[in-house]
């Protein structure tokens, strides 16, 4: 077998030197569009005839460029997390190597000048060999980086034939083991550029800012004139000027000074942002001030187009980030399309630009032969760093270079560091995976627990494994700022603790920013048997190895709908904190640069969720990182029930990324509570004592006035054997049944068997309790006591629950539930395991005709113990269908903590009202938790014909243990006696 270019570990051949990506008025001809395409099974492709202009390709398929062929009906996408889908046999690849041969016939535009010509590919995955009119130009690897060929003198006016052979696997694939779909193809733009003779090919903008003064120097490989009209500047390249009083660039105020760089035959667009990045005193400073990045890790993803994104989608991402109070993005784990960075300059985001290097799969070789440690790969790795830095160096938004992700350590990182420091001393470097941190200006980790992070903030972290305590590396690292490059794994329902993390991040000067993993679920669009659209994960494609669902860990669903996790993040990172203290509202700006003048503070009062007085606060000038106090509005409650004051900080005027009135931050304060009509009722102490250990015999006899097998209490009818409510007035229902389980969320499965409570629940049977009604007692006319023991087969563990019903004077039914643990919850039979149930609650079945829920409590979205900051106290209404959060893989969702009351209604049916005492958690859905667990996709969930209503004491938090620390103890439900109460009222329609 002849090794082709694709197995050569070198980065490429025949390419031009990397240079800045810029926009100019020089002729540019897009070669995007329909190309001829044929896919073959091996690296030989269609054979040696591919470049031949005379080859008859009329029978070939057509494919759009840019795209990934696996998303255009050829072969299939594959997803692995860390594993290489080929043997670790570097730099070689298996013979089975799907290879796409591309051909394009094109004419030059009529007015194409006679000058130098450059052919540019913005991204080819994984490797492209290129011929023009039968002549080999060269090849290139580095999928997410551009490459160019000089084609001067090789073009014809008409009938040019461009041929490209693209291999799915190449030596470059060993350097591209990011946790994402393997998506081959020419997936970014292809273009022909006319480069003027004697013109500028590459230039560097040095625009710094110190104490109100900017300094500008543009260097270039040919002479040119720099003009920034608004600043009255016209200077030749190579000449430095100072600009007093200039407005600097920051993510908060992305001031770009637009102008031109004019050189022979060309005018280049300039967008200069004056800013200086430095590390001083162990902190990251921009323009002399510390910054805190509130960031996300962004992969390029679209459910139909993969990593082939259009500009509108890039803008959508940035708008969504800005609208959710994010100010930073780590381009995990490769440089994005260059247009994205132009947009970051314009909209204002701090960017950590990350190189297209990840060798994670060497973990399965014990890191033996890891490319950064092998001289054979040095050129390829350095080439990637150079192409990133040269392409992106002129973007003010790029403030940090990241050398790559999850690639262990190796000498080549030292070479890369040296090269970048020499080429661009203006930006600090980040690399997380080498515990010496020698090549990084930041200490950095992924997914630390909160207490670990707290110690890092205090610079008291444990010395990383492999580093000698007290050694120079240890001492140096402790002085570095800390950048949390990944945390809060947003897989499925979650992440939890965002507010906890933010509190820590804002408490210590060492922290310069944190990036949630990750921005968007990498689901790929599919159609079910009925033609309904759904999203596929790795496990939906028959391939091995397979990372399965791990690609679904974003804050956006694949269609870019914000998940509840993103709404929680928006609240956790809101840049304005408001707190009521001593009758005043204390407003604290967490902006690093801008004052709060762009915000309006509006307020309103609600009683039992009904809107009362409202107005606008007059807030004095509040500079960045400072506080002001304003008097609270004197608002009357004006209604019964709980009264709350809400203050919202909103955009006073429309911005580029959001309309006027867009809410940046909010706070709520409880003003007081007045009676709602029904006196709070407490069952008599005698009835509330826990059930004695000796159980009375079951008493399933009919009660006076009931049919055989029935017990009645006012309008409430109970099943005489189970003691469950069967009817309340005209409301038909079946329940309560003790429910201590939830359909596991991704975080309940943990990572690779660690922190996997769902498995523990199943091991002991928390998911399959059986119930035995031990006794029904009527201590008096108005009271029914039902005693039930619940637990799983094969175990002693369970709960003994006492349901005490009391008929109140107004005819409503009061229910108190006392659940006491019994048996052995410390499971010693199969290793020592203390199981905590995910839920303490009761489940009711209602007729399927119920359609809506109105409630007063937290809403409108779902809330959990450790993810509830985004929810507000108020009155909300939703259809039961809309209460479901459509996680791409079905799992527990739609909980509402601290619900004061709710009403379940449906056309022609009596409404069921539930008043918590003081609260219940509720969920309502058309399927059971068991069905939710069994479903693989949302379309597997079908209406059971009933509504399943959970009225719970509580549920454990969501955490982010799918890749991260275990759920903190405080968000779990310890096994101990629990009591909760509510009243149930039928309301006529
Ligand atoms: C970390 C990776 O950097 C990221 O790409 C992604 O895989 C994430 O985890 C999990 O979704 S690596 C992990 C082993 C900590």
UniProtKB/TrEMBL annotation:
Keyword Acetylation: no
Gene Ontology terms for molecular function: hydrolase activity
PROSITE patterns reported in the protein's UniProt record: GLYCOSYL_HYDROL_F2_1 (PS00719), GLYCOSYL_HYDROL_F2_2 (PS00608)
EC number: 3.2.1.23
Positions of transmembrane segments: none
Catalysed reaction, written as an equation: Hydrolysis of terminal non-reducing beta-D-galactose residues in beta-D-galactosides
Region Disordered: start-end pairs: 1-20, 672-706
Family annotation (SMART domains): Bgal_small_N (SM01038)
Cell membrane keyword on record: no
InterPro entries: B-gal_small/dom_5, Bact_Beta-galactosidase, Beta-gal/glucu_dom_sf, Gal_mutarotase_sf_dom, Galactose-bd-like_sf, GH, GH-type_carb-bd, Glyco_hydro_2
Domain Beta galactosidase small chain/, residue spans: 712-985
Annotated signal sequence range: none
PANTHER family xref list: BETA-GALACTOSIDASE
Family: Belongs to the glycosyl hydrolase 2 family.
Name under which the protein is recorded: Beta-galactosidase
